[in-house]
Amino acid sequence: MSRLTRRSFLVTGIAAGAVAGVPAIANADPGPAASESAASLASRGLSANPFTLGVASGDPDAGGFVIWTRLAPQPLAEDGLGGMPSRRFSVDWQVYSDEAGRRVVRRGVAAATPEWGHSVHVELDGLSSDRDYWYRFKVGHYVSPMGRARTAPHASSYGSGLAMAFVSCAQYEHGYFTAYGRLAEEQPDLILHLGDYQYEYRRDTYTIPGGNIRHHEGPETESLANYRQRHAQYKTDPDLQAAHAAAPWLVVWDDHELDNNWADEVPEKPEVPQPDFLTRREAAFRAYYENMPLRRGSIPRGIDMQLYRRIQWGQLANFHMLDTRQYRSDQGCGDGYDDCPEAVDPARSITGAAQERWLLDGFRRSRARWDILGQQVFFAQRDNNAGPAKITSQDAWDGYVASRQRITQGWVDAKVRNPVVLTGDVHAHWASDLKLDYDDPTTRTVGSELVASSITTGGDGADSDPKTQPFLTINPHLKFYNNQRGYVITRVGRDQLTADFKVLPRVTQAGAEAYTKATFVIEDRVPGVQQTYLRPLDPSAARTPGVDRIQEVVDLETKRP
Questions:
Q1: Residues 6+ apart with CB under 8 A from 545
Q2: Which PROSITE patterns does this one have (predicted)?
């Protein structure tokens, strides 16, 4: 079956943005809330293409998915309203069974209101399971780009397999989003974004050596207008739009969607008075919902937003999407690496009690071949000290040892068939075995962790040889490390999960090709990662000199203002 490619998406997007010569959506049935005529729209200020932010789909199940767009003819407007008049607009939408958009299977009209940033979230159901669909929107004579979505298999079916990718950490200023475009070309069935979709800093606050490649518009994001403008700036990137249009997404946040290293109601720097932090949190959550293809269950209510949720991919996989920011105890001993007594306090949690119970109950109920945790921060232990002291990152699960132990023991007790943790945050590729006792390397492996590098954060990075990485020597359960930018694409089947760690040689120049640096396999009922391929070190690639590679990794993860 033909699928949307990055090239066809960009061509469609260019055509849709034209003022003249754009075909109306085929067989449109606008209904009683029909969009206004082009003349009326122009007279009221909508005289430019409102689909500058593209389209997206998300949260698929066996009968449907969410389709999303946001109207913004002037996406970088400082008031965050995208150049839209302060009134309601009716948006026609259609879903097709073919990429050409000739066979309409669903149609309707949705309201885009100023209260929600003129965003549109349409939840579809009653579609056929385990198949591709296409969709687009229309306002007046403007037609959006075409997007592709896919339904999950029926609960009783394994379906036709799953090509699933996961990504994290896209700092607009640090490089071009080429990795998103290359990911779109892979034509996956599902994309997980594990946090740091956008960054909150004002221009040139968080810099890379040699200076930033692009620049943020506006101040540090603190108000609703700020967050709306920042999300819009990111969404104007054509490679990000291509990735959103290529497949449905499952999204969760990490810290930069609000404030670096925030924890529940505590900002990054609690010693600095921030009486408006909860107002800032409410604004960030609202803008996040407005700009993501989320279901109505995630509509924020004040400072709270339900983001942890479970998506079933037939009998093949359960995706447990976690929120390790909104309910966590504040980091102990600061946010960096430390030998911290608070890290082992059983009263501390990274998930909160309610989410932990929900997750453990999901393990007990699961009958899936694969149980996949989509979450934000490093799960396995990473000790950076070869001596008796245990120096670990307090912003990761290492800062919440009892919380990690309860969840790991939970999937062991529930006899989860294949637990796999997917992670972002740390701006490098990693692969590791998971243990109940990391201090005894002879104990059995009980799960697997795959970690995606950043899309751009940290700049180009450098090719590296895992054999020279001391973290892997100190922690024998850690099996792979690479410090280039990229993404991970997996092929999930009944008998194994295969993960290709994709990298780009540079992100400070647009258009780089992606290639596979390493491939790991997780076999059914065999916990742990097995390497099957490693591309040799590129002799022409720039590499960081020196032997203290531990310090290099620590610097990469903590170089945030």
A1: none
A2: TAT (PS51318)
Residue 26 has pLDDT above 90, yes or no: no
Backbone angles phi, psi at 429, to 5 degrees: -80, 135
For residue 303, tell me if it sits in a domain: yes
Predicted confidence band at 556 (pLDDT cuts at 50, 70, 90)? Answer: low
The dihedral sign for the CA sequence 384, 388, 393, 397: positive
Task: For residue 354, give its domain range.
Answer: 152-558
Q: Is the pLDDT of residue 242 over 60?
A: yes
**475 occurs within a structural domain:** yes
pLDDT at residue 555, as a whole number: 63
pLDDT at 117 > cutoff 50: yes
CATH value at residue 201: 3.60.21.70
Measured distance CA(50)–CA(420) in Å, rounded = 40
Residue predicted with more confidence, 16 or 104: 104
DSSP line for 383-426: ---SSSS--EETTSGGG-HHHHHHHHHHHHHTT-S-EEEEE-SS
Among 7-21, 307-321, 370-384, 509-523, the minimum mean pLDDT is found in 7-21
Helix axes 353-365, 401-413, angle to 10 degrees: 20
C-alpha separations of 27 from 30, 32, 94, 101 in Å: 9, 16, 9, 10
Residues 200 and 281 sit within 8 Å (Cβ to Cβ): no
- Distance from first CA to last CA of the chain, Å, rounded? 48
In this structure, is residue 73 part of a structural domain? no
Residue given tokens 């490619």 in the structure block: 5
- At 47 the pLDDT is 81
* SS3 call for 452: coil
Confidence of residue 271 (pLDDT cuts 50, 70, 90): confident
Q: Is the pLDDT of residue 5 over 50?
A: no
Q: Is residue 413 part of a domain?
A: yes
Residue 188, SS3? coil
What one-character-per-residue DSSP string does 215-264 give?
Answer: ---SSSS-SHHHHHHHHHHHHT-HHHHHHHHHS-EEE---STTTSTT-BT
363 vs 454: CA distance, rounded Å: 29
Q: Look at residue 370 and give its three-state secondary structure.
A: strand
Tokens of 305: 């937003």
Q: Report residue 96 as tokens.
A: 């097709």
Residues 6+ apart with CB under 8 A from 463: 482, 483, 484, 503, 505, 517, 537, 538, 541, 542, 543
* pLDDT, mean over the chain: 91
Count up the domains in the chain and report the number. Answer: 1
List CB contacts of 175: < 8 A, sequence separation 6 or more: 213, 214, 455, 456, 459, 460, 485, 506, 507, 508
- Contact of 213 with 174, CB cutoff 8 Å: yes
By DSSP bridging, strand 104-112 and strand 55-61 are: unpaired
- pTM greater than 0.85: yes
Cβ atoms of 420 and 370 closer than 8 Å: yes
> Which pLDDT does position 550 carry in this prediction?
75
- Give, in degrees to the nearest 5, the angle at Cα 497 between 494 and 501: 160
Could you report the per-residue pLDDT of 153-175, keeping only the tens digit for each? 999 999 989 999 999 999 999 99
